[in-house]
Specification:
Layout (H helix, E strand, L loop, with lengths): L2 H14 L2 H5 L2 E8 L8 E2 L1 H11 L7 E10 L2 E9 L6 E10 L2 E9 L2
Parallel strand pairs: 1-6
Antiparallel strand pairs: 1-2, 3-4, 4-5, 5-6
Length: about 110
């Protein structure tokens, strides 16, 4: 499976709010960073799944739209527009790093 394929699968699961399918796209050692913070905000699949279950997938209007996507080797960079979390929608650049067919590291850069 290509990096772009697994990132698209997780996006489809995100928009369906299908936690099981979404989490299955990620490594057990997933790390999520929100620069400029140097430390990860989420580490490991249990913390990752809990966050999305309680902070995202419980929102009925949740939707991510891809504005632009680039693929560079095992990294996929998405410019996303997220709605259903707050008003108005917000934009974020997300870098997904894939290894062995799963997303292992995510960097989410919020628009400033």
């Amino acid at each position: 499976m290509t990096p772009e394929t697994i990132v698209q699968l997780q996006l489809d699961a995100y928009n369906a709010r299908d936690l099981q399918r979404f989490v299955a796209c990620y490594s057990g050692q997933i790390q999520v960073f929100r620069p400029p913070a140097p430390e990860p905000v989420l580490v490991g699949k249990p913390a990752f799944a809990d966050y999305y279950a309680t902070q995202r997938f419980n929102r009925p209007g949740l939707h991510a739209q891809i504005v632009n996507r680039m693929v560079l080797g095992r990294r996929v960079i998405d410019h996303e527009r997220i709605s259903g979390v707050g008003d108005p929608p917000f934009e974020v650049a997300v870098v997904y790093e894939v290894a062995d067919g799963l997303i292992e590291t995510v960097w989410a850069f919020a628009a400033v």
